[in-house]
């Protein structure tokens, strides 16, 4: 009886505030109130159904709007990432431009009073100029990219403003049009990102020492296919006689030593050239040329396969030895194995690998002897090879799988602790992870984006 009374009270309240019971108004407005049912104990029940239908559809719209906003925020984040990368490259370009201009001036000056100079100096300078000449169109292209990002940023800002403004009056705006604008922006952004993220290695900067731990030889890495928020670190000390992988939830946990899990692999590994890719560890099984795919989620081996003809157990290691015969790596394109075979006279063979089945999809034979390579890593389908693991090491040779061509190059990097036993590119961070004599270090890389222009 008391409950019925409060139901009546509620009705009264609703009427006072300008709401009416469902029978007096259409189903599209107001609240709906039902009352005077009895529960098993004989008490009266009052049920208020709210919000009503129209409000429900408003809710659906706000949900869609929220999703749109989230999308825009996601895009903003992507742009921030792009922008960060671009800024970094841009500084490099600016410096280079200044250098080039300086050189040009010097060149002119020297030309002016060349009688006072020996011909050789003059010739040296002229050659240096000629070397730099092809870079000019690249620099021009680069400026176009920077503009593109500025434009994207503005579009996002505009769109966010529109979205924020209409949050109050949802029904008023043409949702379809808004949706189309977001989709179009997203497509263009994705196109832009794929164009911008691939390029040619120009420079390696750093290193930053993240941690000092372990033996002289080992491997550490993050998964390039997970989001930056789920940035687990995997740590595999030593090149032989070990099968314990340590996991840390983040770089800072890694630095402080707060281990989150350890995995006991079913087989020992060989070398230090493992890779974590899309939640699985790919590694070379000890004393074999078998590649293992191990899932961290299930703790199971998902696939294993022989890498045909690949030398193993110090037949074709890198210069430092350590059973580093088979190097597994990932880049923007996918998963790769780098090794050497008798058939290719001990020179490096590059194979693209199916990440599910470990089958070789395609192979390229290079002319670079694996035993003379310090390390190698893949960026955008191009393999970069260093000439040593010791002081003075530099990136010395590159092989493009797209063009099936090679090039001798000269990109120095600072081998701070004098002995590198692992060097691998992470496409998400656009960084090189290295194990440098018991130090875990990171290098940044600068890529030049040589772009096929379309609508821009
Ligand atoms: C935004 O990004 C997050 C994390 O990457 C993702 O879970 C979410 O689905 C994205 N939202 C939209 C609307 O794309
Ligand atoms: C963003 O809005 C400003 C001012 O309304 C406009 O001038 C500009 O063209 C818009 N930019 C884009 C990329 O739509
Ligand atoms: C990553 O793994 C998921 C399933 O776990 C799969 O759907 C996706 O295609 C994989 N991505 C790549 C690039 O292999
Ligand atoms: C790489 O560049 C980013 C952005 O400029 C910077 O925050 C980071 O510290 C750099 N890392 C290394 C290893 O130099």
UniProtKB/TrEMBL annotation:
Keywords: Coiled coil, Disulfide bond, Glycoprotein, Secreted, Signal, Synapse
Chief location of this protein within or outside the cell: secreted
Pfam families linked: Noelin-1, OLF
Top-rank lineage group of the source organism: Eukaryota
Gene Ontology CC: extracellular space; synapse
Keyword Lipid metabolism attributed: no
Record has Repressor as a keyword: no
Coiled coil: 58-85
Sequence ranges assigned to domain Olfactomedin-like in this UniProt record: 197-449
PROSITE patterns per UniProt: OLF
Signal sequence interval, chain numbering: 1-24
A biological process term (GO) from this entry: signal transduction
Stored PANTHER family: NOELIN-3 (PTHR23192:SF36), OLFACTOMEDIN-RELATED (PTHR23192)
Protein name: Noelin-3
Species for this entry: Acipenser oxyrinchus oxyrinchus
Lineage: Eukaryota, Metazoa, Chordata, Craniata, Vertebrata
